[in-house]
From TrEMBL:
InterPro entries from the UniProt entry: 6-blade_b-propeller_TolB-like (IPR011042), Sensory_adhesion_molecule (IPR053224)
Top-level taxonomic group: Bacteria
Name recorded for this polypeptide: Superoxide dismutase
Gene3D superfamilies per the UniProt record, alphabetical: TolB, C-terminal domain
Alphabetical keyword list: Signal
Residues of the signal peptide: 1-28
Length: 313
């Protein structure tokens, strides 16, 4: 093959290969721009938790216990599961697409079918005082925090999706470095460590992160020099980046963790003029989504509520 022909073919091949690569970011940017960055939730809903799957987000109402499902590409939504009369706080989806719901002051949890909205099972963890606040699915079980008790509740998720009986959970007391402080909100958000060998929880009223051994409950402080996670609420782990929602401060701290989750460095903070006391965070379609709980706004049946999308760090 002569040099000129090689050159022509090389230019043609380069142009053919480069064109789609150059076009892809522009197409992605147009797609992101076309999607809503703020979606409306039902008036009076009082959102707290969020979980996402594909284009859909699920929100729980701390006022009524209803579950709202929203399409994040259009902003439209519908009621998935009706009011229960008890709160729906932290949410998580298991590997079979079932929604695990933290029951707050009811001291319980529910498992909801995301196709039908049917409540598949209920578990009563504790009597008052109790505040079952958040949940994560980790190593074949769901772990729930209780903001009024120094414990985790472990709910095993059996093979083939079999749910345990009503008394089929265990209570894991926290020991080690952890200390319950007063009657305010203590334990709150919960996630797995990057290596998935342990759990990380945030204590809201002290602004402290703990690494917890799930089998024993032994807790050690996560060393994050120079930072206190005041009003720490929902957590989200993305690779080795931990997002910590600081609700009344209207910001999200981004923390780079080591694989074991024993140390971390704050790499930045996310803020938005659309934040109005966000509580929890989930990732969907390349963005972070947070419901605005509006704790500082007196709730009424007509109070508007929203969820906000921001870029990750």
């Amino acid at each position: 093959m002569n040099r000129r022909l090689r050159t022509v073919l090389a230019v043609a091949l380069t142009t053919t290969l480069a064109a789609p690569v150059a076009a892809a970011p522009a197409q992605a940017d147009r797609g992101q721009a076309a999607r809503p960055h703020v979606i409306d939730l039902p008036d009076g809903f009082q959102p707290e938790g969020i979980a996402t799957a594909g284009r859909y987000a699920y929100f729980g109402s701390r006022a009524t216990g209803a579950i709202h499902r929203a399409d994040l590409t259009t902003g439209t939504g519908t009621e998935l599961s009706p009011a229960t009369g008890t709160p729906s706080l932290g949410l998580a989806l298991d590997h079979r697409g079932r929604l695990l719901v933290s029951g707050g002051t009811a001291g319980d949890a529910r498992v909801v079918d995301t196709r039908t909205g049917q409540v598949l099972a209920r578990y009563r963890f504790a009597e008052p005082p109790t505040f079952v606040n958040d949940v994560v699915v980790h190593d074949g079980a769901a772990y729930f925090t209780d903001s009024h008790r120094p414990v985790l509740y472990r709910l095993p998720l059996g093979r083939g999706g079999v749910l345990p009986p009503a008394d089929g959970f265990t209570t894991v007391p926290l020991t080690g470095d952890y200390r319950q402080v007063g009657t305010e909100i203590n334990l709150n958000g919960i996630v797995s460590t990057p290596d998935r060998r342990a759990l990380i929880v945030v204590q809201s009223n002290t602004g402290t992160l703990y690494r917890v051994e799930p089998a024993t409950g032994v807790a050690t402080v996560v060393d994050v020099p120079g930072y206190t996670f005041t009003n720490g609420d929902g957590l989200l782990l993305d690779g080795r980046t931990l997002y910590v929602v600081q609700n009344r401060l209207n910001k999200v701290a981004a923390v780079r963790l080591d694989r074991a989750g024993t140390t971390g460095t704050v790499t930045g903070e996310i803020t938005s003029p659309a934040f109005d006391v966000p509580t929890t965070v989930a990732s969907a379609l390349g963005r972070l989504w947070l419901p605005n709980a509006r704790f500082t706004t007196p709730p009424t049946a007509t109070t508007p509520y929203t969820a906000v999308a921001v870029p990750p760090r």
